[in-house]
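Dear colleagues,

As part of the handover before I leave the project, I'm documenting each prediction I ran so the next person doesn't have to rerun anything. This entry is a single chain, and its sequence is reproduced below.
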Amino acid sequence: MEYYKNQLCVTFDELVPEIIEYNTLKLNVYRHNIQCLRRGGYGHPALYSFQSLPTRYKMKFEDIYGDPTEAMKQQQLKDELIMDEAARSYYEAFEYDLNGVQSHLSDKLIEEYTMNASVLNLLIRRMNDLRTDSHALGAGRRSDLWDIIFKQSEKMREPTGHTLPGNLARLKEKMKRYKKEKYEVLINGRLGNRNTLKITPAAARRLVALKRSRVPVYTDSQIFEAFNADAEKRGLKPLKSIRSMKAWLGSAAIEPLWHDAVYGEMSAHQKFDRKHRTELPQMRDALWYGDGTKINLFYRDDDGKVRTTSVYEVIDAYSETFLGFHISDNEDYEAQYMSYRMAIQVSGHKPFEIVTDNQGGHKKLASQKFFQRLCHIYRTTVPYNGSSKTIENIFYRFQHQVLHKDWRFTGQNITAIKADSRPNLEFVEANKARLYTLDELKAAYLKARTQWNEMAHPATGISRIEMYRQSLNPKTPAVTPAEMIDMFWVMSDKPCTFTASGLDITINKKKHTYEVFSAPGIPDQEWRRTHTYQKFYVQYDPYDLTSVRLYWKDKAGGYRFERVAEPYMVIHRAIQDQTPAEEAFIRAQQKASDENRVERQVIARTIEREEGVAPEQHGLVSPDIKGVGKEVRRQAKHRTRLYSTPPYELSLGRVQKKVSKMDWSEVSKTVQLNDKKIAEKL
């Protein structure tokens, strides 16, 4: 239906065949019983005067489509309405406090408020037009203006679905406030749960300070009691629910402010700071790992004592092939030198890159520029960062899958909690005479590592040694582009946690990882600071996974939009494979990580001092930030005004290294132990 030449018209498709058959219509037009005002063609439908239709056809039309006159009035009202996109942008960006968390409006409320603003804009324009017309006619001020506006508002209620007041006085008041306050006046002041925990800035600082307190150390129950005990004196509102308090303290935005005080700054660094996702090298010899570890097999020395020893291994990262090794009690210069020599002989090539830890033997080789002669790039793993030591994972799998079969297996280190990771020391003691000699141990280890090299690589199914020899690139799963289905998005059944390594979701039996960016190619560090380890529901298009929408659920079960996420940036692990852009990205993220750690310390320690719970205020010392450069530590000290340094700093790396080489025989009662030596090792 539409108006044409000031007449209400119906289209050909609306008449045929539901109302009238084609031939019948054609005959009636020929006989001038039905008036055709416009012939169809050039993308325009044929139009027929509704008034000219015979009565039986009019009645049939109204039965199907309703009163055309009223329908056109409704359509005209909708056509007059101009959606206020500025209002939509305002409501999409609007945030409010919900359970102590800054939250966005639901999609339903955004649509409702945008429509209400658009209708108010129309009513205001209508009011202004009426006043202009009245003045132009010299009629002065009209007394019925508000009645006209109210009637128009009600006429638009059904076609638009607006929720403006249905009372003249309330509508009048709403329009007056809207002119002054604009979009905010339309937002319901009772958003969220009335029982929402109200945490003011002052209350927040007090709760964080109590959680960070080391003198004394409070449990959550004691924090609740301590806060309420002096809340009135501090001008704060007492807390009513310990459960709500614990939920607030554990929220993604708040936990980073106290985690370091409770669990250590290194723990906070590992948990909250962004982690790189890396690709393994695409070819052999692009990256070699070198490291020493204990051989988890008992042997009998020349004096008949039960002992263990260590091995230094050089491993190709691409194929996981063991290239060179040397067995000795110490991870020293000789062990490393002989291992790399053997690796070069086996490979026949110099590696492009070598990665080791920071132990003494490596420092000696480096000082002699051994690695510079051996490879293009030599670097060490990040201090205090166990996640960067890929070789340790390979060692674990080798010992668990191969060495574990030998009855002489010592078990994993003393940190292992699984029963099958511990040795049967009674059986070992009963068969002490059948233990390997050192030479037999070396032969058994050579056989075991050969077996490992001949086992299938988990990524390719090809034996590691053949994979190395053939230098085959690992197969990388590729997502085949699919035709996009318009407006077909799926919400995940379960929430996914956004961690320091991004957000993982399995779609069509494939895992995809996403993160939030502040600009193309730049992870949003500010957003990460307050949302890492928050759970989100993921809305996605199964046929276009280039972006997803993150939502969280409120207490009413409604979805609240948070941010758009895009595929997680993947960088090459081997420097040989890295592009200049990747190198710049790594440097930028390292800088951002350092800045995050410093900023977290500044905020948290400032709260400590102001609240009187800083360790320095009680004769204690706050630990320095570990694993960062001198300049970063200097900045942290300067900004937190901590200039004193403890006389001795415990080296976590050395202790962890010693613990990792201990076996259960050193702590079991069935084997004689030297308490003094064990204490020295620990």
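The longest helix spans residues 580-611. The two ends are 88 Å apart (CA to CA).

All the best with the project,
I.
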